[in-house]
Amino acid sequence: MPHIAAKFENEQEASIQNQSQTNHVKYVPAGTGPTYRSPVDQITFLITGEESGGAFFMAEVIVPPGGGNPPHIHHREEETFHLLQGSLTVHVGGKTLNASPGDVVHLPREIVHCFQNTGKEDAKFVMLATPAGLEKFFEEAFYPAADCSDTPLPMTEAFMARLLTAASNAGIEFLPPAQQ
After folding, report:
1. How far out from the chain centre does Cα 175 lie?
2. For 8-65, how does the pLDDT look when each residue is reduced to its tens digit (9 = 90+)?
3. What angle do CA 121, 122, 126 make, to 5 degrees?
4. Taking the C-alpha atoms of 142, 147, 153 and 154 in order, what is their torsion angle to the nearest 10 degrees?
């Protein structure tokens, strides 16, 4: 029995050491995370999968009036939005949700969804994706904000090609608008 107890203690100690290497405090002062832009929104990384041990990805998203995304499905992760400012119209699973500040929308994987800012001010929300990995899509598809001017980015064929390649790599499927 002593060797079983010693083995258990060694495994427990190794587990604690692994947790201490991946579970560390992360402080992100406002406006300091890496920021990426597309023609329809902007995303600032708060906590990446590398920093959460793969558990989740968290970001702040800003969508200008009229901005949003087309219907799509995430095959790998779930998304949760906590709206901080403005309004979002979310089409999900055949329903239309009109989210206001303070509202939370949880979107399970494998469900068709899209959102648009139907208000008159920027919509700002915190997005949580579980498990992590969605950040790779934004890094690949969007442009680093530091490389962009303050003017809106045009929706070009080059951007769409970049977006579709990144989506394929990230397990995201874009659908025609009629399949909402």
Report:
1. 19
2. 455 555 444 444 455 678 888 888 889 998 888 899 999 999 999 999 999 999 999 9
3. 140
4. -80
Residue 178, SS3 per DSSP: helix
157-175 pLDDT, tens per residue? 888 888 888 888 999 998 8
Which residue, 94, 101, 28, 89, is CA-closest to 59? 28
Tokens of 53: 């041990």
Cβ burial, residue 81 (10 Å; 0-12/13-18/19+) = buried
Token pair of 115 as six digits: 């959102």
Q: Which domains does the chain have, with CATH numbers?
A: 31-175 (2.60.120.10)
Q: How far apart are CA 155 and CA 119, in angstroms?
A: 21
**Could you tell me the pTM of the whole model?**
0.81
